[in-house]
Each structure stands twice: as structure tokens, then as C-alpha cells.
From TrEMBL:
Domain of life: Bacteria
One Pfam match: C_GCAxxG_C_C
Species the sequence originates in: Hominifimenecus microfluidus
Designated name of the protein: C-GCAxxG-C-C family protein
Length: 139
């Protein structure tokens, strides 16, 4: 398992929410810390805490903006198209069939896939997240 994916699952086990994990990965890859930002990101978790916009998607969009806010204007729609094609909806409630208990079954894979897609898009825009992750968490 790649170092960044392993870290994603470690953060999940620590109780971080989907959007928080995406931003925590970005911060750590850049060698930065910002607990206030991670706390704020909790407002996007669990579909903004009411089953709306998926926190993994919104967190990945924030991660893209964190790396390059100007390019994010083009990157985020690309991620959104992939997300909707893959999951059929952008809404947490729809993805989980309006049962938040389904998070345990669906969210780990969804977070991993969304992170991978965001990472791939960022790499297309010149950010070598693979090298950054290996430098940060590599063995």
C-alpha cells in the first residue's frame, strides 16, 4: 500500500472525518501544520453534517485549492465529473442510501478513490504528490 494511502487510513482510525483527512494529507505533504484549518474542515464532513455534498469530494476540492487556487478552477470540475460518474451523485445521503451507518462500508474506499483521483489531477498540473508522499511517509 502506498505511503499516503496508509496515512489516509491511519487518520481515519484516529477519528478524523473525510474532509479533514484530505486537508491533513495536503498539509503534511507540504510539511505544514494547521490545527485550526483541520478543525474548520470538520464542517464539511458527513455531507456538511446533514447528508449534502460529500465531504471526501469537498475536502479533495479544498486540497486542490490549497496546492493551487488558480488552477483549482479547472481541476475541481474535472474531479466533480469523475465523482458523479463514479458514484452517481455528489450528495453523501444519496451515496449512503440515506443511512449514515453505511459509512463504515462505503466511505473508506470512496475516500481512497477520491484522494487518488484528486492526486492524479494534481499531478497532471505539475504537482508530484507521489514523491511528496514518499518523502513524508515513505519507508
Amino acid at each position: 500500500m502506498e505511503a499516503d494511502i496508509r496515512r489516509l487510513h491511519e487518520l481515519r482510525q484516529q477519528g478524523k472525518g473525510c474532509a479533514q483527512i484530505m486537508m491533513q494529507l495536503a498539509l503534511e505533504m507540504k510539511g505544514e501544520e494547521n490545527e485550526s484549518m483541520i478543525r474548520v474542515m470538520s464542517g464539511l464532513c458527513n455531507g456538511m453534517n446533514c447528508g449534502l455534498m460529500c465531504g471526501a469530494f469537498s475536502g479533495a476540492a479544498c486540497m486542490m485549492s490549497y496546492f493551487d487556487s488558480a488552477a483549482a478552477v479547472d481541476m475541481i470540475p474535472e474531479l466533480a465529473e469523475w465523482f458523479e460518474d463514479t458514484y452517481g451523485s455528489m450528495n453523501c445521503g444519496d451515496i449512503l442510501n440515506d443511512d449514515m451507518g453505511n459509512r463504515v462500508l462505503k466511505c473508506p474506499k470512496l475516500m481512497e478513490q477520491t484522494y487518488r483521483e484528486a492526486k492524479e489531477i494534481l499531478e497532471e498540473y505539475g504537482f508530484d504528490l507521489t514523491a511528496m508522499a514518499e518523502a513524508r511517509w515513505g519507508e
